[in-house]
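INFO  loader      accepted 1 record
INFO  loader      residues=351
INFO  predictor   begin
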Amino acid sequence: MKMNIQGLVRPEIRTLEPYFVPEVSYDLKLDAMENPYDLPGDLKKKILQRIKQISFNRYPDAKGMALRKAIAGYLKVSPEEVLLGNGSDELILAILLTFGGWGKRIVYPVPTFTVYGLLAQITGGIKREVFLEEDFQLNARKILKEYPDVIFIANPNNPTSNCFNKDEILEIAEKSRGIVVIDEAYFEFSNRSFINQIAEYENIIVLRTLSKAFGLAGLRVGYMVGSREVIKEVSKVKLPYNVNALSQAAAEIIVKNSKRINKTVDIIKAERAALMEELKKMVTPYPSETNFILFSCTQAQELYKYLLKKKILVKVFSESYLRDYLRVTVGTPPENKKFLAEVKNFMRGKK
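INFO  predictor   done
INFO  writer      dumping tokens
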């Protein structure tokens, strides 16, 4: 039977564009802010030994208590203040299902992580985008003027790679009548956090991920930290068994070895500084407190296509106001050297 499927789809879904992941061949992948270093061999061995003990025919721990306790120890909070997600994206959805939804005003600065707007639309919220100031900083007054029910603030921000003024964020938390979600996906590269403010501001939720500094992007493990009451309410909409047993086991081992991970972070930060200095000779890079660098140049679109031909993948933006910008993930020294060499070749050809 022929049916008009489009007529059955909710109007806000019909106009939605799926989250875009380019399907192109590459030799060098510097577009997704992944950790360029795989896990140390001995930690992989520990993970494999743990996996051998898992009963694959049984469901994982629905509450993920072993991992929650490990994360709580790492953060010095209570396990009851931690909630696990299948990546932080799932937790963003859970937060919106709990505090957002039909008619609720979902506010976020732009440019920022596109998933906030995507999931706000999926859950039927009213999206309100507030442009950052010229120096990529927040304006608390402009955000509060939108009377938000849920506010998303990535700090450090993606793609601008900077942290926002702490006083502006606290003003938003102080004066807002809604939930303030502070996404600290890149915390380990900035060491700036609002977790200590949760006790004072019950409307603050902090999001974290193990996909970046901890190098577990392939396992999809995120977590949120909030008051016990907030965690209790968001737990109501969390899907059962949402984090699989393999991911829980691997993440627990990695979190317990966070000092090892910190050494990798130091290496990436040193490479970030070196990459920044070289980029300054050719384009306009912006200060970074993440594992990536945003830079601008008048030939950004041409440079992206040139790098793509060389099988080097960086992030290009579809938004008109980001047309002259590209974002590059900090890679290993050889990867950064290859990337810089091709940027230099491109620039030389433009003279």
